[in-house]
Structure formats: C-alpha cells, structure tokens
Amino acid sequence: MARKRISAPLEQKILYESRWVCAVCQASGCQIHHIDGDPSNNVEENLIVLCTKHHDEAHTKRTMSKNLDSSALRHAKDAWIANVKSTRESTASVSGQLALTNGSPLASFGITWGYINHSRVIHMISLDALTGRDADLLSLCIDRGIVDPHGIPILDANTPAAGSYIGNAIYDRLPHGDDQRLHKLYVAMVDQLSRTHHPLHLERECWTKEQILGLLQAGSLIFVQGAFNFRSVSETTTNDHRRVSLNQRGVSIEFFVDSKDMFGTTSMTISFSGHQTCAAFLQVKSLDKTAGLMLRCTPIALGVAFNKRWV
Fold it and tell me: For 137-143, what is the mean pLDDT?
C-alpha cells in the first residue's frame, strides 16, 4: 500500500480537532496515524493524532495482551474530539464560562460580554434560535418597547446626551432596568451565535502563520484570548472609536470598536482601554500576508473576566 501525502488543510483540521495532542493520553505529539493501517486511506475518519508512544503501540500486535486496534483508536478519537469541542464551546460563551466556575460567586464575578457589536449581531442571529428563558426575555423586551420584533434596540432620540462618551452608550438611552434587560438579551444572542457557529479557537498550539492559514479564510469566525492594545482613534462627546490590536509571533489581529456598544463605565475606561487581556469573538475580513500575517477582523463581542482554558 503506497503512502499518500495528507493534504495540508486536512492535516490542520485533524490536528486542530485533537488540539495538537494525542487522542489516547493527551500527551504532546503531532503524528497522524491511519487507523485502518492503510497509509493511502486519507479520509478524515481514518486519521487520528497520536504521541510517539501510542503511535508505536498502534503498530504493535500482541498475542498475550490487548492491542490498540482500530476499534480502540476510533473510540479514543471520538471521545477526545467530543471533549475538546465541548470545552471550546464552554470557553467561548458567557453561559459556558459561568458553568466552568461550578457556581462559585467569586469565580463568576464580572463574567460577561462587555462589548457587543449590536448591529452586527442582529444581522447574524436567528431569533428563533433563542429558547427557554432567552426567548422569554426577548418577548419581555419587545413588550416593553426595548427592542422591535426583529430584536433591534428602540432608543429614545430625545434622551439628553451626557457631556462625555462615558454615559452615552446605547444602554444609557434606556430607563434603569431596561438597560440590564437589553444587555442580558444581547449576551444571550452572542452566546447563541457562538454555540451555533463554533468559532475556530486560535490557541497557542496553532499560533503560527502556516497553521492559521491552513485553518482560516475570509469570513471565518474566530475566538481568541490574549493581551490586546486599545488605542483611541477619534473621540467625541458621544463616542470613542478605538483601534484594537494583538501581535504575537509574527501574527497580528486588528479591528475597531466603539464605546457606544460597551456596557458600563468599567468596560469603557478599564476593560477595553490601554493594554488589557480579554476574550474576542471576531469575524475575519481579510488575511494580509505582505508582512508576516495580519488578520483584519470585524468584532462581534469582547469578553470580560473570561477564565482561560488551553491558552
């Protein structure tokens, strides 16, 4: 059986889904094994990531003890990939982050999407996807005139503007209580988008130009946790427009945010100002390879107090 080279996109997909570790023991190791023993059979279902120890074991046949045969390998792969997918899903949503704290009030304090691109989210979400309490909250917000039937915020144009962009967010144009309801509704929307679309996680194991180019394309949704730089580009009394960037090992990310879409004074003045660590849920607009790799993105939401997992 002649060996066939695995295509680069498929190789990156297999490694990404296994989080670049052995599916059997989770030790570091980036060797891809053909489950059925046929090196020419490069279908996705036949490929598994193994460390050197378990790769050798998969090629060893014993008569006195249990072998690491195709059935055992497929079971290990399915179980580990499901674990990785579940953990990534939890990491990339407020509801999942809260579940990771196991109900600890101290650990869960402040976890939220502190910035939400309202106009972008409302064009991406299907309101029918909201269920349970989230659907009830949508109905309440519609009944109270906070949003229209399409989920678009209804803001009072006659609300007096504050003297600074601090105090002129979308939420500041709503009565006390309704601002909380609108934010809670949009947090639920962002969580739903994350659960539905499964953004690609840019983790330390894949933070190279070659690996990212193998995983991403224009339009891809990504989730990143890192130390971002926030720099004001233009400030008025109603809004502060900020450039956000992250540079690491020859790969850069750039996007822009507006203070009017931030929830609370702390988000405007601390969480998304200067040099701060946060979580970012983004859509890639373009990949510029002229100098290193620059991902120019559209922000969907920025997370505050997200606990790091696999970063």
Answer: 98
